Amino acid sequence: MTELLQAQLVAAIVIGAAATIEDIRNRTVPNYYPLAALAAGFVLHSVNSGWRGALTAAAGAVAGFAVFLVFYILGGMGGADVKLMAGFGSLVGLNGLLALAFWTAVVGGLLALTVVALAKCRRRSAARPHSIPYAPAIAVGVCLALVSA
């Protein structure tokens, strides 16, 4: 495992865990978590590859924002989640964004199924919950994207 990958994983775990806790507790992700991920991505890629690294981080951030902006516009995701994806897009770079989106979608789908199953087991209304915190799926997705690269 390279030093860059180790540093990316540490940043993803720390920022992802903090954002997850905040999202579960308060159903929101403050802007400083996406900004921390964005800054970590720029710093790590720049130190590793100079200005090309900065471009990699920028491209990952823009693409992460753009991909998840569609889900925000369609009403399936909150704005904080879109910003968090942009921050983590910076961390994984453009080349890791497809894996990030894939793993986030897989984990998010499993999370949604779990929430619905638990609601049925508790004999509550089988209706869909109004919202599901998505930061946990994004946090696990970024870690899986990094280790699967």
In a few lines, what is going on in this structure?
This protein is mainly alpha-helical and 149 residues long.
**First-last Cα distance:** 11 Å
Give start-end ranges of low-pLDDT stretches: none
Shape: elongated
- Average pLDDT, rounded to a whole number, is 92
Query: β content, as a range?
Result: under 5%
Structural class: mainly alpha
Number of helices: 4
Question: What share of residues is helical?
Answer: over 70%
Order of helices and strands: HHHH
Radius of gyration: 15 Å
- Any idea how many domains? 1
Describe this structure in words.
By secondary structure, this protein is mostly helical. The protein has one domain. It is built from 4 helices and no strands. It has helices at residues 3-26, 32-73, 79-121, 135-148. The longest helix is centred in the C-terminal third of the chain and has 43 residues, at 79-121. The protein is elongated. The termini are close together.
